[in-house]
Specification:
Serine Threonine Protein Phosphatase 5, Tetratricopeptide repeat; elongated
Amino acid sequence: MNTQAVDRPGHGWPDPVAAGPPPLRRASVSDSTGGGAGQHPRRDRASLLLTTFQKPLNRLDDWAARAKVRLVRDPAAARWCAFQLLENGRWGEAAGAFLRCLEITPGDVDARLGLARCQAALGRHARAAEAYEQALRVQPDHLAANFNLGVTRVRLGQLGAAAAAFRRVLELDPAHARSMFNLATLAETEGRLSEARCWWERLSERAGPRRIEALIRLGRNLLAQGAGGEAVETLGAGVLARPCDPEAVNALATALAGSQNGNDAVRWWLWSLVIDPAQPAVIEQLHASSTGREPAAE
């Protein structure tokens, strides 16, 4: 038996990527499934390329250059390379790699979403929205795609379409806090304070990281609608949970001043200046309250 032919690495198999891992060895009788000595085992080219491309991240340049030629017929390896480029901020090259993936497998939703992320990172929000919509044609109930489409629509100034996307997310997940938050913010932006109040109330009733912020925003909403007593109660709960937030403290002080609780308002304004002394508007409010006149308009 000629052991040199069996044991010599890479015999008949060129290294797919220069300076990559050692190429696969020739099969021996013990690891061959149907032939004899000197035959190769069955190999999957996509698996081979994936193994080769899983190298340290300083080889991204090599991957990006070779992906254009080497991975045309290997969707798994092309997809893996595209996501590596995406996660390392190589947005333009990642977008090209995702487009090549989609040429091979047009129905790949993850590749379509990766392409949308690249387009958004490059500031091409119209193209990102188009990519999200194409992904949703294949998988309409994809929660992340619906939410990101809404965010992209906001960046494009299409607030009505954005609100529709966020409502679709809530149909899929009624407890999705970020969609509630965004819907409340959109309603306030368009002057629909009553609708915004409903969303803030719904969000403030749920436990979670956004509850306190929702309480504060609800209190400011109530204050804008002239519900001073409710605003004081709501903002007080928010400030107790977040006592070092100057915006929340100032909103509470303003609500107290509007409810004829001037002394309490002064105390909270003073506390706000302890938190952040560089607040000319608060200093003006304190000066106005001490002299009994209205503060100057901004």
